[in-house]
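Researcher: Go.
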Amino acid sequence: MDFSFLFVEWLGTPLWMWVSFFVLVIAILSFDLGILHKQNKEIGVRESVKLSALYVALGLAFGGWVWWYVGSGAGLAYLTGFVVEKTLALDNVFVIALIFSFFAVPRIYQHRVLFWGILGVIVLRAIMIGVGAMLVAEFAWVLYIFAAFLIVTGIKMLIVKEAEPDVSKNVLVRFMRSRFNVTDEHHGERFFVKKAHPRTGKMSWFITPLFMALVMVEVADVIFAVDSVPAIFAITTDPFIVYTSNIFAILGLRALYFALAAMIHRFRYLKPALAIVLIFIGSKIFVADLMGLEKFPAAFSLGVTFAIIAAGVVWSLMRTRDQQQLA
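Model: Structure:
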């Protein structure tokens, strides 16, 4: 059998590297669902931390392979993207916690929602990153729009205090409730249930709150991708590095959710650090042009990004050290 097609480049990277990455992701998810969480169960903080550590180790190991096989520049870009995407995802945890609370999703089924949610993320991020890569390849000036957007977003995060989202007033929630049959009660792990319609008495399909929570989690990721995708493109325009660092960062987020949700209040001062990171990532593109550089050294970008995030984490933990952990 001729396997020469695997060495054909797709989006600047040999096809076998893309195939290997997707096989690895499928294997990880199969192990997670088929072995670790074959049955629905509540995930405690300790198990959450252990699983997250495993996912972080896998993400860093993949970054190490990129460094060894592709080169140090690609390896540093991957690690920078991984750190940035992982940190930006913390905001997503807060929103997911609100969604689960609003729909009263039992803890035993939250992992199921997050698992299916990650499958949607893999597809949605692929589409968004693919479109972004094509735009950057065809129109180099789009990168400056991404950079300017990051700067504006970062400044807005610093000076505007956003109110807590009210899920009940969300347009999509109201649309689903007005257009589809929706149950108010949960039906175990089921996303859809068939039962008698209260008005007609006929057997009809209904959407459960679990499915509505899944839809809202997917929409939340799309919204957060509006920030994270331009951020990673401002670090590197290599689609393979952009996509793999995104997915590995998000894979671990699902595992870490259960630990973070219990102590999200401890990171309330991390947002200014995230804002500064976005401003830094966006600004360095313009500064590099002014200095006549093709781009900032990858090691410098990684070092500054990590230092800002570490300072934000330490400051948050220090400011909230006297607060009791919320249940």
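Model: The radius of gyration is 21 Å.
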